[in-house]
Amino acid sequence: MKMAIASNIVLDRIIDRDRNIFESLGGPACYSGLTARRFGLDVIIATKIGIDFSYENMDFLKENGIMLNKHHAISDEFPTTRFQINLNKEEEEEEERQLILSSKCSPLTIEDVQDIRTDCWLISPIIDEVPPNVLKTLVQDGKTTNFVMLDPQGYTRVVNSSGQISLLKNLQLDLSGITALKADKNELGALTKGLQGLAGMRLLQSTYGISFVISTEDTLIQFLHNDTHYWIKLQEMDTTDSTGLGDILSSAFCCALLKEKDPLWAICFGAGAVTAALDTRKTGLNKVPSKSKIENDASYFYNTISFRRL
Known about the structure:
Layout: E1 2-6, E2 10-15, E3 21-26, H1 28-38, E4 42-46, E5 49-50, H2 55-63, E6 66-68, H3 70-73, E7 74-75, E8 81-87, E9 97-103, H4 110-113, E10 120-123, H5 132-139, E11 148-150, E12 157-159, E13 165-167, E14 180-184, H6 185-191, H7 197-208, E15 212-217, E16 220-225, E17 228-233, H8 245-260, H9 263-280, H10 291-304, E18 306-309
Parallel strand pairs: 1-4, 1-10, 2-8, 4-6, 5-7, 10-11, 11-14, 14-15
Antiparallel strand pairs: 2-3, 8-9, 12-13, 15-16, 16-17, 17-18
Helix pairs in contact: 1-8, 6-7, 8-9, 9-10
């Protein structure tokens, strides 16, 4: 099986709560891609990188079985997308996680994605790189098995002149044809004009016919499929770095659903991947957990998940 991921690769500069600095490959292309490789899927990423992207990083992707669409990946016009991620201490007044855009690579075009053959598209823009016409092409692409998952995070982000990221409160985005969607509290509210939780999830389901809607907020993961509402409450856990957890969740969900054909197992694998990643207490891509640890945590959630028929 193969997963294709539409998202620009990111070079992250992470400053942790103790002001230690880490440099890491990042973005959904890497976090989701490595997670999919843990499940044994082939991975190809539709992405853009600049000529500043190092040979070491290229070797890392190759060694981990992540393929670039090489004919279209390198941009001569813009450098690789770079973020600085400031992880603030809880007692500080600033937000716990501050995102600053240092550089932004080229957006994807229809030509970048139209020749990719895959069983699943995971679309997770960082900022601006999957325009509406490309999103529409991927949704309507008959070369897939009609499974398209979207994380709309990049559509909600706007950047000021200093590179600081803020979030839109209202997002107009055509979600027709999307199979599965994962959204955090802000993203769900932006897509539903302020509705939160189950009410927002049901609106997306009824308006766009999305089969699988996942909502994440703090330690709560909610899942809506057909007429059943599921929820998983994670334990509070102090972590050095939460970057990429949503990408790990989305990828694990897709992989499990493709392999097991069971939505309940899939959301448990998604939650299990999050807790397994947190348990590593590692930074950057080092937190992507092993499949055995994901399976162990998923089995626990499968036996303890709460649900209600609507």
